[in-house]
Amino acid sequence: MRKLSDKPLKSFPGGSSVVLGKDMAHDSAIKHVTGRALYVDDLPEPPGLLHIACGLSGIASGHIKSMDLESVRSAEGVEDVITAEDIPGDNDVSPVYQGDKLLSCGRVDYVGQPVFAVAATSFVLAKRAVKLAEISYEETQATLTPQDAIENKQFVLPTRTFSRGDSAAAISRAENILEGEQMIRGQEHFYLEGQISMASPTEEGGVHVFSSSQHPSEVQKLVASVLGLRINQVNAEVRRMGGGFGGKESQAAAVACMAAVFAFRNSRPAKYRLSRQDDMVQTGKRHDFWNRYRVGFDKSGRIEGVSLELAALCGCTADLSEGIVDRAMFHADNGYFYPAVSIKGYRCKTNTVSNTAFRGFGGPKGMMAAETMLDDIARFVGRDPLDVRYENLYQAGRDMTPYGQTVEQHILMDMMKKLEKDSNYRKRRTEIEKFNHQNKFFRKGLALTPVKFGISFTAAHLNQAGALIHIYTDGSIHLNHGGTEMGQGLYTKIVQIVANVLCVSHERITVSAARTDKVPNTSPTATSAGTDLNGMAAKNAAEILRKRLLEFVQDAYGVEMDSIRLEDESFLFGKDRISFDEVIRGAYLARVNLSANGFYKTPDIGYDKEAGTGKPFFYFANGCAVSEVIVDTETGEYRVSRVDILHDVGNSLNPALDKGQIEGGFVQGMGWLTTEELLWDSGGRIISNSPANYKIPTAYDVPERFSVALYDKPNPVETVYRSKAVGEPPLMLAISVWCALRDAAASFSGYSKSPPLGSPATAEQMLRAIKWARDQEAAS
Amino acid sequence: MDSPVDQTVLVYLRENGLVGTKEGCASGDCGACTVMVGSNTEGRIVYHTRNSCITPMNQLAGNHLITVEGLGDESQLHPVQQQMIAHHASQCGFCTPGFVVSLAALVESRAAPTREAVLEGLSGNLCRCTGYGPILASGLSALKLEYRSSLGSRRLIESLGQETGLCQFYRRPLSEPDLQKDILENPGARLVAGGSDLMLEVTQEFRSFSALIDLTGVNELTEIDEDAGFIEIGAAVSYTRLEKFFLNRSKPFLDLLRRLGSRQIRNVGTIGGNLGNASPIADIPPVLLVWDAEIELVSSKGKIRFIRADSFYEGYKKTKLKKGEYIARIHIPTMTVKHFHRFYKVSKRLEDDISSVMGAFRFAGEGGVIAEARIAFGGMAEVPVRLKKIEKMVVNRALDKELRARLREEIASELSPISDVRASSGYRLEVAEAMLMRALDEFSGNERINITELELDA
Known about the structure:
The complex is a heterodimer.
Chain A (H helix, E strand, L loop, with lengths): L28 H6 L15 E7 L5 E7 L1 H4 L4 E5 L24 E2 L5 E7 L2 H8 L3 E6 L6 H6 L3 E10 L2 H7 L2 E9 L11 E6 L5 E5 L4 H12 L6 E5 L13 H15 L3 E4 L2 H7 L5 E10 L5 E13 L5 H10 L9 E10 L13 H19 L3 H8 L19 H11 L2 H14 L3 E14 L8 E8 L5 E5 L8 H13 L6 E3 L2 E2 L14 H28 L7 E3 L2 E4 L2 E4 H10 L5 E7 L4 E3 L4 E3 L3 E14 L5 E10 L7 H19 L31 E6 L24 H12 L16 H17 L1
Parallel strand pairs in A: 1-12, 10-11, 14-15, 18-19, 28-29
Antiparallel strand pairs in A: 1-5, 2-4, 2-6, 3-5, 7-15, 8-13, 9-10, 9-12, 11-20, 13-14, 16-27, 17-18, 17-24, 21-22, 22-23, 25-26, 27-28
Helix pairs in contact in A: 6-7, 9-10, 10-11, 14-15, 15-16, 18-19
Chain B lengths: L8 H7 L18 E8 L2 E8 L12 E3 L1 H4 L7 H8 L9 H13 L6 H7 L11 H12 L24 E3 L4 H10 L4 E3 L7 H4 L7 E4 L9 E4 L2 E5 L4 H7 L5 H8 L4 H6 L2 H6 L7 H7 L3 E5 L5 E5 L4 E3 L2 E2 L6 E8 H5 L1 E7 L10 E10 L2 E10 L6 E2 L1 H7 L6 H14 L10 H19 L15
Parallel strand pairs in B: 4-6, 5-6
Antiparallel strand pairs in B: 1-2, 1-3, 7-8, 8-13, 9-10, 9-13, 11-12, 14-15, 15-16, 16-17
Helix pairs in contact in B: 3-4, 3-6, 4-6, 9-10, 15-16, 16-17
């Protein structure tokens, strides 16, 4: 028998084991601030490493007539050049439906589509070489807008509708009817770490892939498929990402596959890192949406019937657009009851890069339709938009969503009333009206908007997770789970959960990189459910171990299981106190299995996508925000002057991390709706292709007065310690900024009309809205 | 140490195992690669931040280079690192080293513990996760702590690149005669000062330079003098130094400088670079046009000629600069700086963004009557332009409604800006009009404040 370690464990103080609900620092915080946290590009480069660059399509639609790669092949440093024919297995790297080619097979569908690839001895030499290709195309007519796609009936997937009652009849019966339309632009993820992967051949003839991916299992599966291997010959590893935001859910896979193909062909390690510009041109973004609505309502602004059409610019393939447009439709009610409703979702096929997941996953665009409509109704009936929002909130008896799920927890009214009071909404509303009346060059705007966001993957099978825990003989604990860390603090929360179950200090626990050979068949870390799913799986594994340890103590010390308590790294019974370390050593010697895997699947959900009814969500996360803005009425420039947020995370597992998600999500949403403008030219080339011309918020854009409060109420459904998901919902709180901007412009019409305003509400769009409102007032 | 002449500090660091400094954009826009550079200024080491992704490594000869790894480690964290942890100021962590270095530079320079100072120091750092709140709080807390620098004990970077054995040419002349000799010796060499534009050819277009002449050491080009009725600014004077010089001389110019690029860019970018680069959207040229500045060009043989700023530009990205010539100094009449002047900038984002429209106005005169007018715009044509017709229209006239209506018509007929990623033609025109009206208002005593100056006491 090997000698057990009996060294005192200096780094395992027997401190408080109660870490749940505490502001524990991010597990990598020290590494982040000292520059020691390693991202894929920071890993030591193995000898002989190949660096990859892709040659990209220069046109939006057509066929490659000829491709001369001779000068590319003979360029300095080039070791290998491939086209689609050189891919050993399947060239298709789509996540769900077919269509996403690793390399073009002759047809090109967007500017920036990879058509060939080069591996060279350095990144720069690879980038120089791809420029030398001579490609000629036969161009065909490109479709670039959702309007054109609808007219040409070009869709990546069939159009779907959900409806309840006869909305057309309800609308025409109503006292008032309004119609509107709105273009909402997408958003570039701008994760600070661009897409990257490094692959190395293994001695089994497979590959090991380091990837910056939210979905290692899909990377593993697609790499195997592209190489013509079995899944068990490929291992994917993700320690951390420098931001993901949905952009690395499906679209990290192609990057990993490309690295794997070169590693496999050349029996050499290969790295594919996208330059910032390549990333902005070559990878998908948040979808543009063109929304139209028709609504009937009474004189108080209460909605009687709604008809909504949401048209998403999906780009050239389906990618994840099925679920994204579904989720836009699921959130086109936001927190409001529509007595009779029809919601139609188009998935428009265009000659642009295939758009993909982005924090909110379609939800924000559905919600924008609802909030725009609510403001329009309020101005029409001459009430404060907040009161019209109250008028229409879901409540008992008026609680059925358009897709047939009942809203069971009615806390939005209470949250909004509380925020209204705490933020002095009414008083500020009066003061702002006075200010606007007196001020010639500046106008202020104010808005309080809610968020109700459904939690669960709408594809039910994805709502599962696994975890793996080992306890070693010195009492140290190794934890692994299927979730990936992209900054949200998932690893930290899961350590807190496991520490809580085993009543040990978090310092005993090490979380290791997500690896497909540790926890298999994982779902992407997405839909805000990372903690809900993986936390439950880890809790399950920890509980299995806890039970085994209790059984061991029961047998070894002859005490009743019920009389044993776990507390502060000890097992307590009678007057005895046995340390965790001692129990572990004893359990090992007694041949107790100190490794367990845990599993979780979300209960009680199911949705029939063909019928458009069911219960897609386990529960809803709620929040509300009030934002105030001030606008220069001559240039349209503006600043956000104050933000107050009240958000529902159930029982917070870690308030500091949750507030970080709320604040960060809000600012990211604010960027989406204000300064981040994706633009293409008439040839389908993206012209917002660098941080010099695509502007995400800076620190200056965030107001000093920015308060975030957590709504203190446990989740009524049984999630991990009754917490709620927090990743995505706060992004949509920023709709309050957009509504406040429109409110400022509407002041010029005496608040009687809502100016047309798309998103992002750039200074230019604001000036246009102000002008419209001024013209209305002048005309009346 | 050997380094190819066009190798950036970022590439050098990462190839040598110092991977804490990150590449986020390789264009000086995100700040993930921020490093601190200490240079000997009047006998003491002064630290400033810069984007290592667009800094030639050779430029750092004789300086301290401080990366995130050099600030502190687990056993001894820098106060900024401590505060960042305490405030939960990192999420994904990728931008974090850049923020740590920017904040540490504030601590090092004993900046005031104010929100304004911290914002200013972070103007070139993007974070996509946190929403910045905790980072600002960390900076404020760190600035309030007692701090004793230990950076001064580090060793200087040896001279680099003179003998690289790569048949490359990197010169850092210390005087104009030496600069002229270097240009004569290698007329094809590119001139580099801040590198904030030039180096993009390397990092974005993957070109290579084999010969660079670094202007940052040329004494005469790095001086600002004021005498004989002129302010003379060396072409290699950075924006940061301009900010200091104009602190009590021109509030409008100071405000403009604070919206030009970021802290990191202003620390390196130069007035000569902004001119020579001849971009139609550069912010400095319209200022020089209305201040009646003259540009002093010097040839490699020492021949000097002066060109008025308003005739320096010949076309899109084209200037009167001849081969072998360099921009030496900018001469601004002191009197014009004392006249009423206003510079208005509109951009999509308020901070660190390129102008959609930049308007510059100077009016001499009293009692609401303009005796001499200069009006110039950037972002409205292929080159920065002066609107001479409009200038004539406002001189010695009542600035009344009728004139204003005619001015609006005239400006619309004189300017035909393009639509691009920053703004549409129509918006540019509207804004230009509004700027002109505002300048007239302000000259008439109806002062207005910029949106950036508002106290947000909601």
